[in-house]
Each structure stands twice: as C-alpha cells, then as structure tokens.
Amino acid sequence: MAVREICYCGEPVLRRRASKVHNIDEAVRRLIADMTETMGPAAGMGLAAPQVGESRRIITVWTDTEGEETRALINPKIVEREGEEESFEGCLSLPTLRGIVLRPERVVVAAVDEEGNEVEIEGTGIIAHCLAHELDHLYGRLFIDLVDPDSLRWMRPDDREESGFRYDRTTLEEATEAFQRLIERKKQREDR
C-alpha cells in the first residue's frame, strides 16, 4: 500500500469520464488499497480513482459517520435517490475550498466489491452526499460545477477562532486561478 498524490482541480484526469473496470485483478486491488491508505492522511470521507490519477470507475468511501468502516465500490451507480438537501462540501482535489451543493438526502448505490460480489450501499445524510460527490468524479464533475457560487469560501487557519479556522469569501474565477497556480508549482517540483 502507498499514499498516492492527489490530483488538483485543473488536471485533465479529473474532467474525463472514468473507464469501467472489466477485470478485478491485482492492479485493481492495489489501487483500492492505495486509495484507502491515501484517504487517512488526507482526512477525506471518500476518494475516487481519478483523484489519484487513475481514470477508472472505483471509489472508496466511509460507510459510517465515524469513519471506521471504509468500502471500495467498483463500477458504482446510483439506483435510488430520494429528497434533496444542502450540503456544505469540500473536496481533496480542491483543498480548503468549501461551498453549498444540493445533494440527495438518501441514495442507494449498486456496485461490485473487490471480490467481485454485487453489493448495494444505502446512505442517508452526509453518507448520501459523500456517495453522490464521489460518483460525480467518475463522470468528470467536481462540486464547483454544482455549487451555489455565492457560497464559495476558503477555509483558513485562524487561532483567534474557537474552531481554529475562519471562512473567507471567494469567487469561482479566483478559486480556479488559485488551483492553476497550485498545479504549476506541482509541475515545477516534479521537474526538479
């Protein structure tokens, strides 16, 4: 297992429709193990394969609100959705950016597990939001495609705040430019 580098908004792999997995081989299992390992230090609730540079239809998600149980879902699709509610979201590919998105209150996702068994996962509330968010990645969508633009905020460290951070307003254009600069710095590090 290895912690993989997370791709940032603006990297082309995040905008491609991910390929269906036809064969669950050792490479797929290794990718799943790496994704699970990557979620921990990144403090993510979920991760899609495109976020680690692999355009494959695989996600790893918490299936409980404590983050104690993580499941891998291969070729997942939402087969039931119910209700709609606002979700204040962030994304590992858009670090420290937050905004309000409308998500289903409840979803049922059909998929295959890493053993090749058909499974269904039901999620409500934050788990439903996470499942919908991660499935969006498989279609090349990011939460900023659905966000209320007036709700976009940077989450900044601030010791004066009880929570340890504050929210600063931003625009979609400013955020996009900030991520482009982040990608350019990443490329410069790689070129050294």
Can you walk through the features of this model?
This protein is an alpha+beta fold. The chain has one domain (12-150): Peptide deformylase (Peptide Deformylase). The chain contains three helices and nine strands. It has helices at 26-42, 126-138, 172-191; strands spanning 46-48, 58-62, 70-82, 85-91, 94-103, 106-112, 118-124, 153-157, 165-169. A five-stranded antiparallel beta sheet has the order 1-2-3-6-7. The chain has a four-stranded antiparallel beta sheet with strand order 4-5-8-9, covered by helices on one side. Strand 8 and strand 9 form a beta hairpin. The chain is globular, with a radius of gyration of 17 Å. The mean pLDDT is 93.
- Fourth-tier CATH superfamily name: Peptide deformylase
Using the coordinates above, name the CATH class: Alpha Beta
- Percent of residues in helices comes to 25-40%
Average pLDDT:
93
User: How many H/I helices?
Assistant: 3
Strand order of the largest sheet: 1-2-3-6-7
Order of helices and strands: HEEEEEEEHEEH
Give the count of structural domains: 1
State the secondary-structure class.
alpha+beta
